[in-house]
From TrEMBL:
The protein, known as: Polygalacturonase protein
UniProt record similarity statement: Belongs to the glycosyl hydrolase 28 family.
Protein species of origin: Phaseolus angularis (Azuki bean)
Residue intervals passing through the bilayer: 28-47, 54-77, 97-118
InterPro entries, alphabetized: GH28_Enzymes, Glyco_hydro_28, MFS_trans_sf, Pectin_lyas_fold, Pectin_lyase_fold/virulence
Highest taxon listed in the record's lineage: Eukaryota
């Protein structure tokens, strides 16, 4: 409407005051409107790539004021325009504006107005972008962005988006070396099969976006056998892929099964899986270094978090440990499994895991260490503090007889080393059994420390609350009293590191992107 009003005023001015023929006046207005739309592109380029919206609008605003002042001066100063006349009654004596008089109108006045009207279109675009703008924190901000709908995504909860996710990430992977990329999932219910991530990548879900796992088995390919496993975990030829999968990646914001990754931050995730379905782990860091999981909520039919590092002789040979892992402010619901599992595939080693401020509700156990003869490897330097647990079978659970192997060729002399396991500051209610700690004969789990623990039973507690074999360590202020192999040591407080891991020192950057939903 503003452009139409200015257009009408200009055609009136150029015919009545500048004495242009009507055909020429019409061409002036046509060129004027067309140039406005072209200048909007220039304004957008300057705004996005160089000046920013504030300076672009400020400069164009000054030009607008300058242009309107010149046009007003010309309109009111007779010396700057042709002699006044009436085209209808005195047309043959009306002289068309030329020379510096026309130049004032064309070069200075109209161009200035065109620039500002072009900038007004930039302002509209900026306002729309602000309404669809996204702000978040990440390890690194991304230079390139795309929305899932750009690749044919449909968020109706019915249409499959497997191809859309895969095509989008494949396309964005080309920007890994050019500032990275992010895929924005807008509001909606996005049904999909598994898809793989890429390095230097952010998968950003709008707070009203929900990713739904497809129930169509044909959309779930079998993964190639991982080199540290030798075969599939449940079948000789691999297993179905995780919904969101990554391997050999760095600098990513993700969730799902993580294999051979480093420098990973998972923050503010909500994961819901059927509680009656096995192998629906929430987050599985496998052979990963420098991982930070915080402010996450997971409902699972299996382990909420399962830290792994390879299986038997294959994991020993591959020798890629999981280490330097931080878990904070974490909530788990898993009636048939554990909040945080270490193993059972731990043949490459698991060390320096730090977990604090944990909540488990209706969960089989809190922290479970799983291993077996033939695993080799180690689980050591595990530090846990601040657990609030409600309704579970076991608070503490360790087993050295987890019966699963990839093949009969495992080495029975490859014994795991489980040592330096520390738990403190635990409150648990509605518990069936305090602890089930079963090491390996002639290879006990050592240096176990448990302090400041209060456990209250459910209506049908076990008669013997502590079952301990082939374990050793110390305890303090633990209720009910632990087994003899974990004697009381007064004034003991189990250690928890005071230094920060490198991944904790990573300062998340404030990032933003514009997306039109």
């Amino acid at each position: 409407m503003a452009i139409a009003a200015v257009r009408n005023n200009i055609i009136t001015y150029v015919t009545n005051d500048m004495h242009f023929p009507l055909s020429k006046a019409a061409n002036v207005v046509t060129n004027f409107v067309g140039t406005i739309f072209l200048l909007a592109l220039l304004g957008g380029y300057l705004s996005d790539s160089h000046l920013g919206s504030f300076w672009t609008m400020l400069i164009f605003g000054f030009l607008e004021l300058f242009g309107f002042i010149l046009l007003s001066v010309q309109a009111h100063v007779p010396q700057l325009k042709p002699t006044s006349c009436n085209l209808l009654t005195d047309g043959e004596h009306c002289v068309e504006a030329k020379g510096f008089k026309a130049a004032i109108f064309f070069v200075i006045g109209v161009i200035s107005v065109i620039l500002i009207l072009g900038s007004e279109k930039v302002k509209v675009a900026e306002c729309k972008a602000a309404n669809g703008g996204i702000e978040y924190t990440a390890i690194n901000c991304r230079k390139h962005s795309a929305v899932l709908t750009d690749f044919g995504g449909v968020g109706d909860g019915v249409t499959s988006n497997t191809k859309a996710f895969r095509n989008a990430i494949s396309n964005l992977s080309h920007y890994a070396s050019d500032g990275g990329a992010q895929l924005i999932v807008p509001p909606g219910k996005w049904l999909t099969g598994p898809f793989n991530l890429t390095s230097h990548f952010t998968l950003f879900l709008h707070n009203k976006a929900l990713i739904l796992a497809s129930q169509n088995e044909s959309e779930w390919p079998h993964l190639p056998v991982l080199p540290s496993y030798g075969r599939g975990r449940d079948a000789p030829h691999g297993r179905f892929g995780s919904l969101i999968f990554g391997t050999n990646l760095t600098d990513v914001v993700i969730t799902g099964f993580l294999y051979i990754l480093s420098n990973i931050i998972m923050q503010g995730l909500t994961i819901n899986a059927p509680i009656n379905s096995p192998n629906t782990d929430g987050i599985d860091p496998d052979s990963c270094t420098n991982v930070r999981i915080e402010d996450c909520y997971i409902v699972s039919g299996d382990d909420c978090v399962s830290i792994k590092s390879g299986w038997d002789e294959y994991g020993i040979k591959f020798a890629m440990p999981s280490q330097h892992i931080v878990i904070k402010r974490f909530t788990c619901v898993s009636p048939d499994s554990t909040m945080i599992a270490l193993g059972s595939e731990m043949s490459g080693g698991i060390s320096d895991v730090r977990a604090e401020d944990l909540t488990a509700i209706n969960t089989e156990s809190a922290i479970r260490i799983k291993t077996a003869v033939g695993r080799g490897g180690y689980v050591k330097d595990i530090f846990v503090k601040g657990m609030n647990l409600t309704t579970m079978k076991y608070v503490f659970w360790m087993t050295g007889a987890y019966k699963s192997h990839p093949d009969p060729n495992y080495d029975p002399k490859a014994l795991p080393n489980i040592t330096g396991i520390n738990y403190r500051d635990v409150v648990a209610t509605q518990v069936m059994m305090s602890a089930r700690l079963q090491g390996i004969s002639n290879n006990p789990f050592t240096n176990i420390c448990i302090s400041n623990v209060t456990i209250q039973f459910n209506e049908k507690p076990k008669k013997h609350q502590w079952n301990c074999t082939d374990v050793s360590g110390v305890t303090n202020k633990v209720t009910p009293p632990p087994c003899e192999s974990l004697p009381e040591k007064e004034q003991l407080q189990c250690p928890f590191p005071t230094n920060s891991l490198p991944i904790e020192s990573v300062k998340l950057k404030s990032c933003s992107t514009n997306a039109f939903f």
